[in-house]
Design brief:
By secondary structure, this protein is of the alpha/beta class. It is built from nine helices and nine strands. Helix 1 runs antiparallel to helix 2 and helix 3 packs parallel to helix 4. The radius of gyration is 25 Å and the shape is extended. About 5% of the residues have low confidence.
Length: about 325
């Protein structure tokens, strides 16, 4: 009996590890798809920052302080936009187990809309119809990942451009309607992604959720996207259904059980804290392998009254510490 229990636990652990690797593989594929879509936008942000700084320097050289705050504001706006994109990329690529929370899908789509626009490109018109301000319980990062993967699939189905709509609606699912979707009768929130692309044939539609089944060329996609979304929805107590017609387009709808309002666990992003000025000539050891970052941060800290030591890596940091002890 003990041996059977041990084998069962070992099998369960191996399955959990395999599922985690699959989820991570799908997240990293999404990140890979993202990088090409947002590289142009990052370059634009950097150009805005560089131009603003150049204009500030020219005015300083000429002794003209007019509009310095304006150019600084332009640069900081681009910095914040770049930081937001970076934060989103890290959220997608981060390896973590499912962590269900009470969330509002309309809020998640609204926060993801700009990133989706950048990913699908200017030839695809992205619209939203967020009529359901309701609550569901699922892993918000997995929901974002699912929406992004569906948007990427839609983009690939519209090589000449088209329309992409993201929608949320509340559904009262009963009787035959519930049975056809393998759902218990009750209230559900439907999250739909609709494109005007090439659509799927009945043969492709029948295998759409099969793991490793794909219609893309070799090297483009793992064939895990829809199967991972299917598993995620079922783990969250819901279901996924696809409606598609060749030459017309595809709608993928994720159904999640409706939850009582007032339980949303969304946590707002932390506000950047202001740095306190030094009070007793404190010393800070700042370590970074990027010269520009190290120089700028050290200068800011010195202006706040700190004594700053700089190091490029851990080894030089330890040498700095030993040297300060000897002094």
């Amino acid at each position: 009996m003990k041996e059977r229990t041990r084998q069962y636990r070992q099998s369960q652990d191996e399955r959990d590890a395999a599922e985690a690797k699959l989820r991570q593989s799908q997240r990293m594929e999404a990140v890979g798809q993202l990088t090409g879509g947002i590289a142009h936008d990052f370059n634009n942000m950097l150009a805005s920052i560089a131009t603003s700084l150049e204009l500030m320097q020219r005015r300083l050289d000429a002794g003209n302080l007019e509009k310095l705050s304006h150019y600084n504001a332009l640069a900081m706006t681009s910095v914040r936009r770049a930081a937001a994109l970076t934060h989103r990329l890290l959220a997608f690529s981060r390896q973590q187990p499912l962590a269900p929370k009470y969330v509002q899908p309309s809020q998640i789509i609204a926060g993801l809309e700009e990133l989706i626009r950048r990913t699908v490109g200017p030839d695809i018109v992205v619209t939203t119809s967020l009529s359901a301000n309701d609550t569901i319980r699922c892993d918000p990062h997995q929901l974002e990942n699912a929406l992004l993967n569906l948007a990427i699939n839609a983009r690939d189905a519209m090589p000449e451009g088209g329309n992409l709509n993201l929608e949320t609606r509340r559904h009262d699912i009963r009787g035959d309607f519930a049975a056809a979707r393998d759902l218990q009768a009750g209230q559900y929130i439907g999250i739909s992604v609709t494109d005007t692309g090439t659509g799927m044939t009945p043969e492709v539609l029948a295998r759409a959720f099969d793991p490793f089944f794909r219609t893309k060329k070799t090297g483009q996609g793992t064939g895990l996207g829809l199967s991972m979304i299917y598993g995620f929805a079922q783990q969250s107590g819901g279901q996924v259904r696809i409606h598609s017609k060749p030459g017309i387009g595809t709608t993928v709808t994720m159904f999640f059980p409706w939850q009582e309002a007032g339980e949303v666990e969304a946590v707002p992003p932390p506000e950047p804290a202001s740095l306190p000025a030094a009070s007793h000539e404190e010393t800070i050891l700042f370590v970074d392998d990027e010269t520009t970052v190290r120089q700028v941060a050290s200068e800011v800290l010195r202006e706040l009254g700190y004594r700053v030591m700089e190091a490029v890596d851990s080894k030089s940091a330890f040498r700095q510490v030993e040297k300060s002890r000897q002094d």
